[in-house]
Design a protein that fits this description.
Chain lengths: 227, 318
């Protein structure tokens, strides 16, 4: 049971809002010590795990060019494009992005999106631009809600699209794991059985997105009442 | 051959640039903290492969102490005012999208083409890491296109990267830190303990209860580990294979496919999946770091319920 001390530390740390880097480090060291490693061994194990996980940070390489383009007005232009479309609303912009993101992910094109390279510079400004077009200057709260929704669309469409592609990491992991346990499965079969959930994800989240415009309108009415 | 190591050098150089720009910025009250933080991070990319594990461990602890004692700051100077950006947006028009869209397009092209190109029988990039390497190459090409088009001062890209990276702050390193924590959890055998608890406390003699335990277990364990890949082997070996497949005769393919997707429902609900849930709140400058998770929870719960029903009705059909 002592092995679970790391989980307890993480939960307490997140609840008390202590700097997550510190919480995670302490949780890691405590877990290692609880499992019987010496203090220096734990630090070495943590260092090794950190170094082998460096690939997670590669996405930051997009920042120089995205920053440069933002300086030159990329976000403003993204808003401007949508402002030219009368039919555009925040809901519809996000619906279109959801559909494209899920379909392209299902074709294995998972890198056609992402928070740093697509959501921040393009999708969020477009959705905000569409809402501004309808309602004029937006209250901060509404702006934040639209942005959080833009980030969520990227995640949900990706997660429940990519598993339909046979060469994606999770399919390979499932196949490898089952094979170790003496069960041979075909990647195409795994991909096919990801489709029902993908359809459910599309229906559920797109329904919620359709309701987003209405909820934004209510938020704006409430904020202007307050003012 | 281009390998992941070269991409790490590139990332290290960028982090080093960010550290140096910070060192020279008098408008940031904590500039030395920022310099130390990004400087050490740069070192882990440039030299981490060759340093002993223990040295890397102390570097990581150094970064954590810098970030949590007094914390990181941000320079004050805006790089351009809103009016300037709007004027520039009007002047450049839709051309601004060209470098931005170069990134995903070249990444996708790279992942397809590098697999087909050989020089003297060997590939030019490490095919196991083809996506990450393609992304790195794509950012360089996009940067070249952007520089040629906009003709900014030579140091502008790294200054802009500094601005964005400092806006994200320590959250930029959190996903990597959580991946390291997951590895330690695996060494310590956290998974087996969790499965043991489930087996002891849940009545596992009814097919629906077993399916629910497996699917919800995948989601909850993914929330704890921050990653469905870590939860899958544990839950499948502990509950999926012995109960759903062996005792109740379920189809392993359907179980595994829907089980993994149940784990993804958990990913949507946890701050431990920082790269999907916490980093975007920093990137989008949202005051509430749980804002994205809050939007995702209703979808995740409805989808988890849908997964349970799908698995129950599909996995046992013959």
């Amino acid at each position: 049971m002592l092995t679970l001390v790391g989980i307890v530390i993480v939960v307490i740390g997140f609840v008390l809002r202590i700097n997550p880097l510190l919480v995670v480090t302490i949780a890691g060291l405590a877990t290692g010590i609880a499992s019987g490693l010496g203090p220096l061994e734990v630090i070495a194990a943590f260092g090794k795990a950190f170094i082998t996980s460096r690939y997670v940070a590669i996405v930051w390489l997009v920042l120089p060019v995205i920053g440069l383009l933002e300086h030159a007005g990329l976000k403003e232009r993204a808003r401007g494009v949508v402002a030219g479309l009368r039919a555009a609303t925040a809901s519809r912009v996000l619906l279109v992005y959801f559909t494209i993101r899920q379909i392209t992910a299902a074709l294995g094109l998972t890198s056609l999106g992402g928070h740093a390279q697509m959501v921040r510079p393009l999708i969020a400004p477009m959705a905000e631009g569409a809402a501004e077009n309808q309602y004029g200057e937006l209250p901060e709260k509404v702006r934040h809600k639209i942005r959080a929704n833009a980030a969520a669309v990227d995640n949900i469409a990706l997660f429940f699209g990519e598993d339909i592609f046979i060469a994606i990491g999770s399919i390979l992991l499932i196949r490898g794991f089952l094979e170790q346990n003496g069960i041979r499965v075909e990647p195409t079969q795994l991909a096919i059985w990801a489709i029902p959930t993908a359809i459910c994800a599309f229906v559920i989240h797109c329904t919620r997105l359709l309701l987003l415009d209405r909820s934004l309108r209510a938020d704006i009415a409430r904020e202007t009442d307050k003012a | 051959m281009i390998t992941l190591e070269h991409v790490y050098w590139l990332t290290g150089l960028m982090m080093l640039g960010v550290a140096i720009i910070n060192a020279r910025d008098a408008t940031n009250p904590r500039r030395l903290n920022n310099t130390a933080f990004w400087g050490i991070y740069a070192l882990t990319f440039l030299a981490g492969t060759h340093l002993p594990d223990i040295a890397n461990g102390f570097l990581v602890i150094g970064m954590v102490l810098v970030a949590s004692i007094r914390g990181l700051g941000q320079g004050k100077k805006e790089s351009a005012t809103r009016e300037e950006r709007e004027a520039s947006a009007r002047a450049w028009g839709n051309k601004l999208f060209i470098p931005a869209l170069t990134i995903p397009l070249v990444t996708v092209l790279g992942t397809i083409l590098f697999k087909k190109i050989n020089v003297n029988g060997s590939p030019i990039v490490d095919l196991k890491q083809v996506t990450v390497i393609s992304l790195a190459i794509a950012t360089l090409i996009a940067l070249a296109v952007g520089m040629a088009m906009l003709r900014p001062p030579l140091l502008a890209p790294i200054k802009e990267a500094r601005r964005l990276l400092d806006a994200v702050g320590w959250a930029a390193v959190l996903p990597q830190m959580l991946a390291a924590l997951g590895a330690l959890f695996a060494i310590a055998g956290v998974g087996n303990v969790v499965t043991g608890i489930a087996e002891r406390w849940i009545p596992l003699d009814n097919a629906l209860v077993v399916v629910m335990t497996y699917a919800i277990g995948m989601a909850v364990f993914t929330m704890i580990m921050g990653n469905a890949f870590a939860a899958f082997p544990v839950m499948t070996a502990g509950i999926g294979l012995p109960l759903i497949v062996q005792r109740f005769g379920g189809d392993p393919t359907i179980m595994a496919a829907i089980g993994m997707l149940s784990g993804f429902c958990g990913t949507l609900m946890t701050p431990m999946a920082a790269n999907f849930n916490i980093v975007p709140t920093a990137l989008l400058e949202l005051p509430d770091e749980n804002a994205v998770i809050k939007v995702q929870i209703p979808t995740a719960l409805m989808l988890l319920a849908a997964n349970i029903l799908l698995m129950y009705f599909l996995v046992f059909r013959h």
